[in-house]
Every structure is written in C-alpha cells, then in structure tokens.
Amino acid sequence: MKTNKNELRKTILIKRLNQSEKSITIKSQKIVNKIQNLKKYQSAKNILLYFPIKNEVNILALTKTKNKNFFLPIVKEKLLFYGKYDKECNLTLNKYQIPEPKKINKKKLDLIIVPAISFDKNKFRIGYGKGFYDKFLKEQEALKIGICFDFQVTEKIEIESFDEKCDIVITEINTYK
Questions:
Q1: CA-to-CA distance for 128 and 130, rounded, in angstroms?
Q2: What are the tens digits of pLDDT across the range 61-91?
Q3: Cα 165–166–172 angle (5° rounding)?
Q4: Is 22 helix (H, G, I), strand (E, B) or coil?
Q5: How far apart (Å, rounded) are the C-alpha atoms in residues 51 and 56?
Q6: I want to staple 91 with a disulfide (CB 3.0 to 4.6 A). Which of 28, 55, 65, 99 is the partner?
Q7: Between these two residues, 42 and 129, which has the higher pLDDT value?
Q8: Residue among 89, 19, 18 nearest 60 (CA)
C-alpha cells in the first residue's frame, strides 16, 4: 500500500522528535558502525555528510575517521552544493537554520550519506519537500547511502518522476540493498 508523502512526513517527524537523546545516541552509533564496516566507506576519500537537525541520525562521529575528506551540504538558490567540513571550518546557519560551511567545494564525491524523514524498502526517500536532494543526487555518480532510524522505514511511498533513490538504506536494525 502506498503512503501519502505529506501524511507520512508529519507522522514520522512527530515520532522522531519525541525520541529521547539517549535512544538517538545509541541508535546513531549502531548506524555509524554499520557505515564504517562498508567496504565502499573504507575506500572512499570524499564523503558528503549532513548536519543532523530535528533528532535525525547523528553521523558526525564518522568525521573522526582519518584520511578522509568530509563535506556538508550548502543550500543556494534552490540547489544543493557542498563545502569542506573539518575542525577549522566555521559553520553558519542557512535560512532553514541548518549549519553549513561558507565555501563551496568541487571535489568529486565518492560517497553521499543521505538523510530523510522516511525511506521505503525500495530505497526511495521523503525529505522536507523542497527537492534539494533529488536534484543533487540525480547529478551524482557517488554511492548514495540513505540513513534513518528503523521506525522511519515504510513499505512503499508514492514516488514522482523527479524522485531519486539511494543505493543502500541503513537503519540501526536493517540494511536495504
């Protein structure tokens, strides 16, 4: 059965916002461990992460991995770009109140960690409804790893022609390939 995106977005977001900090920390670490065990992650040099907001999976522990370049999304004029993320970078809040680097970087990405409000078992995602990630992912050759908590996965969501899917979706319990 297909689920309406707007209804699902509201339901899942409420559930995600009601999680305890301890639960988020424990489940996030399980997801980080799964990512670190992927051969594609181990061989990747340039990785796009995201800055977790509204109780999203916190994957920033990945930045402790040595010999990798990490990047965060930058939203400019309805498009998604990315900038280098390290200890020295200064993050500023964008109009959605999400921290982002100031400078756009053009390095080729090897891996993209994709957040979502929900994924379905076919690896399609529901974001916040602005389409930034769909436009961005369409242009990328890098491996796309969707991550969320297990309760955020639904059987099937309604997809539209512009929707992009991930190559893998990882939760603290399951991995969908």
A1: 6
A2: 999 999 999 999 999 888 899 999 987 788 9
A3: 130
A4: helix
A5: 9
A6: 99
A7: 42
A8: 89
Contact 12, 118 (CB under 8 A): yes
**Rounded-to-integer distance, Cα 169 and Cα 63, Å:** 20
Q: Are 95 and 36 in contact (CB under 8 A)?
A: no
How crowded is the C-beta side of 88, counted as CA atoms within 13 Å? Answer: 3
What digits encode the pLDDT tens for the residues 96-110?
899 999 889 989 999
Residue linked to tokens 């602005």: 130
For residue 137, the surrounding DSSP H or E stretch is helix 132-138
| pLDDT given at position 1 | 47
AA identity, residue 177: K
Q: How many domains does the chain have?
A: 1
pTM (2 decimals)?
0.93
CATH number of the domain encompassing residue 157: 3.40.50.10420
Range of the domain at 19: 2-176
User: Running DSSP on this structure, what letter comes out for residue 165?
Assistant: B
φ, ψ for residue 78, nearest 5 deg:
65, 15
Q: Which structure tokens are listed for 70?
A: 């990490």
